[in-house]
Prior knowledge:
Layout: E1 10-17, E2 20-27, E3 33-37, E4 44-47, E5 51-55, H1 65-75, E6 83-87, E7 95-99, E8 102-108, E9 113-114, H2 120-130, E10 150-155, H3 162-182, E11 189-190, E12 194-200, H4 217-240
Parallel strand pairs: 5-6, 10-12
Antiparallel strand pairs: 1-2, 2-5, 3-4, 3-12, 7-8, 8-10, 9-11
Helix pairs in contact: 3-4
Amino acid sequence: MSVRVVVPGVRLVERTEAGRRWPTLVWSPGPGWRTISTAVGGGGLGERGWWLNTQVDLQYHTSDPAAHVRGIAAGLDLTGPGVGMLTAADVQCWTGAEDSGVTVAATVGLGLPVFAAATEREIAAETAARGPTLPASTGAGRGGYRPGTINVLVVVPVALSDAALVNAVITATEAKTQALVEARVSGTGTSSDALCVACPVEPEGDGPQPYGGPRSLWGARIARAVHAAVAAGTAGWLERHPDGDPHRPWCDAGRP
């Protein structure tokens, strides 16, 4: 396991399913927090009391991943609304980072990187080249579900306005992509990345922070922490999967 920073409140546990043990990251601060998230379980904007990110099989498929997440949470004694992410990446290799009160936990898998702004022809060629990595019944293609590959939790210690939370999602995503570009990964992310930004419900002082962009006070901290965590996770993944590894169908040169 490679953990750069111990993230307060984030713990690594195991769950058992179908006779196998699956590593799972859990952050459970309880009431008083709200999140904005793209997660399959508990996504959107609202008050949430926990977050989990659990490893599943690469060939994972279910007709209702959100219900599966709820079952996993119940098995871990997580009650009430929360956010749940699934990943085929090795959760034991999670990485953490901290910057002036902002903490980040990330899992990084890069077997299927993509460039976001691909043409229809490029998407079709990409899909054909990779072949059926999941059963067709999962709807794993466009519009369907595939377990996340780069999953990120961002915890901000101050309340953020709705607009600042939305902006924080953009800032965190840009920082993630910056880390991938610097590592010469052949893509801007993966097609199934998931993100969660959490902050306290109750503001202090003059109210919630209004900005989350990369040059705002808290946005800059978010960007640096996300960049550090994803960069560390990327470096670890590349070390475990050098050129020629079957799980890495691309080289350091990236796309021409």
